[in-house]
Amino acid sequence: MTEPLLLRIAYAALTLFIVFNYGILLMGTTARIRARVQGRIGIPVWQPYIDIIKNNAKRTSISHGVMFYLGPVFRLAGGIGTLMFVPVIFGSPVFGNFAFAGDVLLVIYFIFFGQLGMALGAGEGGHPYSAIGVSRGLAQMTAFEVPFTLGVIALVIQHGTLSVTELVAAQQGSVLSWNLFTNPLATIAALIAFLGMTMNNPFSIVTAPQEIPIGPPTEYQSSYMGMLQSNRAIFNGAKLVLYMNLFLGGATNIFEMVLKTFALYMMTLIVGVSFPRFRADQSIRFFLKIPAAIGVVAVILTAL
Q1: Which among 40, 186, 239, 257 could bridge 251 via Cys, Cβ 3.0 to 4.6 Å?
Q2: Contacts for 36-42: CB closer than 8 Å, 24+ residues apart
Q3: Which letter does DSSP use for residue 56 in this model?
């Protein structure tokens, strides 16, 4: 009984290592592409590795409350928790992780848990504008969670299961079996919400670097910033794998996983370099109008 559990933990650690490095390379690659579109040279693809190593090698003497230090820990727990309960490769004993019946609800909770923990940590910092970043982030998160949750509910009604693995299994057979084609309205609602989850333009209202310096980039330093950068790589990879499983039929091998998730990430990059940033009120109204309406229609049509 102990040996299979230890083996599964080892497999999960291997999956975490692979997704972490994949997420790092995605960050470097997309930053390079974004710079080229803007007429700049951009950073090397491996620059995120250097940044993480550099930040983790530093120490800070700044002292805030306990929650300030737990914020990055909660954020990292949210990213790892999301990944650990999503099968990266369908049918693989190595990359299946700890998927179980009803895990789609747990995954949604982990997505919320990491961002809420980060908000609590940033809110306890000493920066006067941290509260602005927290309010913006939580408001936008609540807004894009509406169409995303509606899209997931439509899939649950369609397939009669709350298991991510079973949702992937229901899409096997051919490309036309993907939820992208069998439930396009749910897919559209959730993919628009995914643009908000990435927090790239036009939904980069939390840090708003062109407007005011706020929150984590200013307050968190040294190893805390290194932890946040590591989580960004893991969380990006986990969300891409989740969306691939829910709407694009999952993946049966590493090559298929990379191909689908990279294409999905390029979609967010194209949108990001094509549109300017929304104001906070514009972003919230946007998610609660068209994407939410599409999600509601998807749920009604699926139920009927």
Answers
A1: 257
A2: 37/273, 38/273
A3: H
